[in-house]
TrEMBL record:
It holds the Pfam family NUDIX. SUPFAM superfamilies: Nudix. Its EC number is 3.6.1.55. CDD domains: NUDIX_MutT_NudA_like. Gene3D superfamilies: Nucleoside Triphosphate Pyrophosphohydrolase. Its cofactor is Mg(2+). This is 8-oxo-dGTP diphosphatase. Belongs to the Nudix hydrolase family. It comes from the Bacteria. 8-oxo-dGTP binds at residues 29, 40-43. It comes from Massilia yuzhufengensis. Mg(2+) binds at residues 43, 63. The lineage of its organism: Bacteria, Pseudomonadati, Pseudomonadota, Betaproteobacteria, Burkholderiales.
């Protein structure tokens, strides 16, 4: 097993900003980070002792100048990269203040159909499931039938 696989997972808070029409915000990872140039939902590592949703709010202020007002805990995924073992906490966020700005020099884009590539490997399997939430919210919430 690789060192990353053996390591304790690093918690990452990830926010899916979702407009009323279902469009979601993706950002491109800046130079100097692992997987630079790959697209991701904005977020970052949770600091020691920090609440996960507060970490998400902090990252959105730092990276995009956006104040996230609320978020729905959506899913949690673990993934082992060669650089790290991560545990990703995804939140769907429909309420925020401010327009995203590129505060760290990164590109970002609102997406209906996903036209940017490549996406981070751990995020790709979630997109099909996310489409059910984006385009049929009432059905997605009613999984009892
Ligand atoms: N933000 C985000 N990170 C993701 C996604 N999918 C995925 O595998 N990751 C991984 C990539 C990284 O290994 C990790 C996020 O860590 P990061 O290095 O970007 O976090 P950070 O901004 O706090 O970085 P730093 O302060 O250490 O530079 O989570 C995603 O959709 N969004």
């Amino acid at each position: 097993m690789s060192d990353a696989a053996m390591a304790k997972p690093v918690d990452v808070a990830v926010g899916i900003l979702m407009r009323a029409n279902g469009d979601v915000l993706l950002g491109q990872r800046p130079e100097g980070k692992p997987y630079a140039g790959y697209w991701e939902f904005p977020g970052g590592k949770v600091e020691q002792g920090e609440d996960i949703f507060h970490a998400l709010q902090r990252e959105f202020v730092e990276e995009l100048g956006v104040r996230v007002l609320s978020g729905e805990a959506w899913c949690c995924v673990e993934h082992v990269y060669e650089h790290a073992h991560v545990r990703l906490y995804f939140y769907i966020c429909r309420e925020w203040e401010g327009e995203p700005q590129s505060l760290e020099g990164q590109a970002f884009a609102w997406q209906g159909a996903y036209s940017v590539a490549p996406l981070l490997p751990a995020t790709i399997p979630l997109l099909e499931w996310l489409d059910r939430v984006r385009f049929a919210p009432s059905q997605a919430a009613n999984f009892a039938g």
